[in-house]
Amino acid sequence: QVQLVESGGGLVQPGGSLRLSCAASASIFSINAMAWYRQAPGKERELVASITAGGSTNYADSVKGRFTISRDNAKNTVYLQMNSLKPEDTAVYYCNANDWGLIYWGQGTQVTVSS
């Protein structure tokens, strides 16, 4: 069992930056993939970015070039650096762990991009 706790969300103006953190209660060293998803009001949850145990990354087209996912295995933490934020990035952001078929979710953190 892995518990995930997100932090770092908040209100930011368009063009601004935020860094989200996802702290895991157990070692993430061997977890196959860690990811960030988001869900905006009235929309389905969507994959934002993922990173494998080997460090390979994947991004949604809408965030490529603006967001960066990284993992610090020593700290059991995954990060999402978000730059050049847009109002359409407003959503609840969820951390996800895929431990070779066992799926874990965090409780989510709200990101609001507004002037």
So how many helices?
A: 0
Helix coverage percent:
under 10%
Count of beta strands: 11
Q: In sequence order, what are the helices and strands, one letter per element?
A: EEEEEEEEEEE
* Subunit organisation of the chains: single chain
Task: State the distance separating the first and last CA atoms.
Answer: 40 Å
Largest sheet: number of strands, sense, barrel closure:
7 strands, mixed
Q: Rough shape? A: globular
The helix/strand class is mainly beta
Mean pLDDT: 96
Descriptive report:
The chain is mainly β and 115 residues long. 0% of the residues lie in helices and 53% in strands. The chain is built from no helices and 11 strands. It has strands spanning 4-7, 10-12, 18-24, 33-39, 46-52, 57-59, 67-72, 77-82, 91-99, 102-105, 109-113. The strands form 2 sheets. Strands 2, 4, 5, 6, 9, 10 and 11 form a 7-stranded mixed β-sheet that branches. It has a 4-stranded antiparallel β-sheet with strand order 1-3-8-7, with no helix packed on it. The mean pLDDT is 96.
Please outline what is shown here.
This protein has 115 residues and is an all-beta fold. It is built from no helices and eleven strands.
